[in-house]
């Protein structure tokens, strides 16, 4: 059983010089005229022998920050195995997390989040002390302005301003484990597109290297059920994406639902996306094929029918303000060599899916 634990703590920071205050969990925040940095530590999931932790840093001062650092004590018997959205080091029992090159700038009231996976019990990983540091403009991030993450570092395309928030949306092909997301994140950042933030309510699975794991890939979900439930609106309001990557409909095809019913559900989701953000860019996949011998007798034909109808549907929904862009994930995808069960992608399939999304995203990020 997975349980969620949360503990909010507040650190103090100087507006001009990095300074920290260590606070006792459950006690009153340390009083300081320069209070202006808060950090909230939560355990997103806990399976007894391991856990996923998240920390949100918020600039509560009256001055924009150019960098941040969070420190806490790791309880005995715990280790951290990987992290995302922060540069993290462990010295003895002291954990230090600093901003990356793309999430150091915090306007007044702005927040940045990072996460990590560890061994040990999540409940007992909650720190008894935590310190939060901010850098004011001109102060540089930890390590000096010439180190990675400093304000003088040249960024990749789209670096100025807020990060582009990208929501991967779908079923288990997107979320369980959905390692195409990890490959896409790595390929984008390797190409210099560092000012991006993958968003969603789900923590991703391990894919062999750190990446921005958040997504809305829900195993077993039908797009028609999601459209009826209205749950997408809740997810959107929590994350406010700029771009959605939608690979959805596999379970609907497997359930023998008509193509038009699936397209109607797509339209409902598009309306919900635009209600959240009228300028939403929506990338919709022609979904990967299914092997009828290993899924359902009509699955292969159902996927072909859906994919054939998607371009005309997208053209009818697309607007200049909120384009709907078709991404062909079907052509060149072989269920014999690119899946492990006739439905879900293996490593080869993940690489193809990631490459197709990458080619569609780059023109939007330039």
Topology order in helix (H) and strand (E) letters: EEEEEEEEEEEHHEEHHEHHEHEHH
Average of the residue pLDDT scores: 81
* Cα-based radius of gyration, to the nearest Å: 22 Å
Give the N-to-C terminal Cα separation.
Answer: 43 Å
Task: Please state the structural category.
Answer: alpha/beta
* Biggest sheet architecture: 6 strands, parallel
Number of helices: 9
Fraction in helix? 25-40%
Q: What's the shape?
A: globular
**Strand element count:** 16
Can you describe what's shown?
Helices cover 27% and strands 26% of the residues. The protein is an alpha/beta fold. Strands 11, 12, 13, 14, 15 and 16 form a 6-stranded parallel beta sheet that branches. The chain starts with a strand and ends with a helix. The N terminus is likely disordered.
